[in-house]
Amino acid sequence: MIRVLLVDDQPLIRSGFRALLDLEEDIEVVAEAADGNEGLALARQHLPDVALIDVQMPVVDGIEATRRIAADPALAGVHVVILTNYGLDEYVFEALRAGAAGFLIKDIRPEDFLHSVRVAARGDALLAPSITRRLINRYVSQPRNPGIATGLKELTAREREAVILVAQGLSNDGVAEHMVISPLTAKTHVNRAMAKLRARDRAQLVVLAYESGLIAPQNP
């Protein structure tokens, strides 16, 4: 059973998402919150698999709530998905750096929304294609992060290759097919790279790949 926490200051939005989720046999909404501070408390209380958090809220916004969840070892199993109306760039970068597993636009189709919740629960990165393009384009002008250099040196050649493929949007199965290895071996390469680079999840692995210069948008 996938346990979901809804955090949004608009009751109508929460009700709409809950109505969709409650129809699914494998998904359970364990709690609702109207701001990030309340959401953080409920996350600690219920330990959901997925926290759907609105990016703009009173008291504590979605980015700060994500940052606090990511910093709490007790909430390591909580995958945060940021909800937004527009997919504004500055929110995308801040939320991903804070530890979000991805973004969803609120006008997403119901079937895609449900699929996305299941993808997030598995621990996979979740980025709407339009946001992914903005993310990649923005990183052309972003300063590189020198603090990642040590972690990069620890990666094997195969782990580096796996990270580049993940940054290009491939799943573990896609990485396996490209590298001509088993999906289990691909997953092992990705997980070891995440550990060495101290990435919370695949979304942060993508961020690190671009920030470190391991992959460049103009030369993928």
TrEMBL record:
4-aspartylphosphate found at: D54
Residues annotated as domain Response regulatory: 3-121
GO molecular function, one term: DNA binding
Domain of life: Bacteria
Heme as UniProt keyword: no
Pfam families named among the record's database cross-references: GerE, Response_reg
All copies of domain HTH luxR-type, residue ranges: 148-213
Record-linked InterPro entries: CheY-like_superfamily, NreC/VraR/RcsB-like_REC, Sig_transdc_resp-reg_receiver, Tscrpt_reg_LuxR_C, WalR-like
Record's keyword annotation contains DNA-binding: yes
Keywords: DNA-binding, Phosphoprotein, Transcription, Transcription regulation
Identification of the protein by name: DNA-binding response regulator
